[in-house]
Specification:
Helix 3 crosses helix 4. Helices cover about 25% and strands about 25% of the residues. The chain is globular. The strands form 4 sheets. The chain has an 8-stranded mixed sheet with strand order 14-21-20-16-17-18-19-15, with helices on one face.
């Protein structure tokens, strides 16, 4: 009914749990946990399709899949083995975290979950996300395979002081790219902050770009709390931690056989690996120099290569989604994964915050949509409807002069 993480493999436990299981077996620092395998979700789906099966206790939501017999007891036992600590409950679908499609951010993750009742709810949320609008839109746009089942990963939550993403080097002479910010990882992967960016060459030389890390996300008791950061002008990582990250990334890439997109966390001086998946779409190289903003040209970070011109559609939240039309250039504070359906129709993306290793930037590159990230105050500096030229390799956004 559950599988210890060290025994998890892709065919039974999906991409995310399978990759982490391999790292655990190799002795790498991965938080303890277990997986609810694919077969449990498939059994629940079959049971839900059988109208002759009466609902089980706890199935109070009519749209919920029924809970297979023994699942609650198995989850309770798994949590006891972890010490009944707060956990992260994350998707591990078939077809997710593959070399062809990352499905970055498209399925559910629930952090700071405590107690078996809430873990059951989080497992159900992961199951339901397999067929959510955003996941279906991603599979359609990426021409991915139909959904084939959802395993769920349950791990001890790391209360990160610093967290981020690392793209390991593409070859022995290549550079490692790292983004980092304060607190838990959703700030970085969700593009909510513009993180610090580091490029570490094969010889160890480091190029640093300080990010505007204005907020952080932390667990406070059983809640996730966003707070303001006073020390935005300080780098999140020192040289020794960068060296340790790069060395860890090399081990992961060697073990898994190709360059990896790694989510990591730093807590109490210890680095933890939270996820490892193949790099599906490498970011464009940094612009040779940050262009000077002249003649109304806005500048940001190159996020996804390509050049496109289209009418700006300023979107500040879900209530604006209906205004977006095919061929528009999406101008927004940041792109939450729930915005994936918009990426099927827009011609380009401009964000106010976010890094090149965020989920939205990865999906934009997979879908070959030009993107410029971290354009300060873009939603107020760009007039809705004005035609923009977005150069995702140069990191420029140019209003068309009429």
């Amino acid at each position: 009914m559950i599988v210890e993480l060290r025994d998890a493999v892709v065919p039974t436990c999906g991409g995310k749990a399978g990759a982490l299981g391999a790292l655990v077996r190799a002795g790498l620092p991965v938080p303890d946990g277990f997986a609810v395998p694919l077969d449990v979700h498939r059994a629940a789906a079959r049971q839900g399709a059988d109208r002759s099966v009466p609902p089980r206790a706890g199935d109070d939501a009519p749209e919920s899949l029924p809970l297979p017999t023994g699942l609650v007891e198995a989850l309770a036992g798994g949590l006891r083995a972890l010490g009944d600590v707060p956990v992260a409950v994350r998707s591990s679908a078939m077809g997710e975290d593959t070399a062809e499609a990352s499905a970055a951010g498209q399925h559910e993750s629930v952090l700071a979950v405590s107690g078996v009742d809430d873990v059951v709810l989080a497992v159900r949320a992961c199951w339901a996300s397999l067929d959510s609008e955003r996941a279906a839109a991603y599979r359609d746009a990426a021409r991915g395979a139909p959904s084939a089942g959802m395993a769920v990963l349950v791990q001890r939550l790391v209360d990160a002081e610093v967290s981020g993403v690392m793209f390991t080097a593409a070859d022995p002479r290549g550079e490692t790219r790292i983004e980092a910010s304060w607190g838990l990882g959703p700030s970085v992967v969700g593009g909510v902050v513009t993180p610090d960016a580091y490029r570490v060459a094969a010889d160890g030389a480091v190029t640093r770009t300080l990010g505007d890390k204005r907020t952080r996300l932390d667990r406070v008791g059983g809640e996730l709390v966003t707070s303001a950061v006073a020390h935005t002008r300080r780098h999140a990582l020192d040289d020794s931690t960068l060296r340790a990250l790069v060395a860890l990334g090399r081990r992961i890439a060697t073990l898994l056989g190709r360059p990896q997109d790694v989510e990591w966390a730093l807590a109490g001086g210890t680095l933890w690996v939270l996820q490892a998946r193949p790099v599906t779409a490498a970011p464009p190289p940094p612009a040779a120099a940050v262009p000077t903003a002249t003649g109304g040209v806005l500048t940001g970070t190159p996020g996804s290569a390509g050049t496109v011109t289209g009418p700006a559609r300023v979107v500040r939240g879900a209530t604006d989604f209906h205004r977006v039309r095919p061929g528009d250039v999406l101008v927004c504070p940041y792109t939450d994964p729930a915005w994936t359906p918009l990426l099927r129709i827009v011609a380009g993306v401009v964000t106010e915050t976010g890094g090149v290793l965020s989920h939205a930037a990865i999906v934009a590159r997979e879908l070959r949509i030009p993107a410029v990230l971290g354009v300060t105050d873009a939603t107020t500096r760009v007039d809705d409807g004005v035609h923009l030229t977005v150069d995702g390799a140069a990191g420029t956004v140019t209003p068309r002069v009429t």
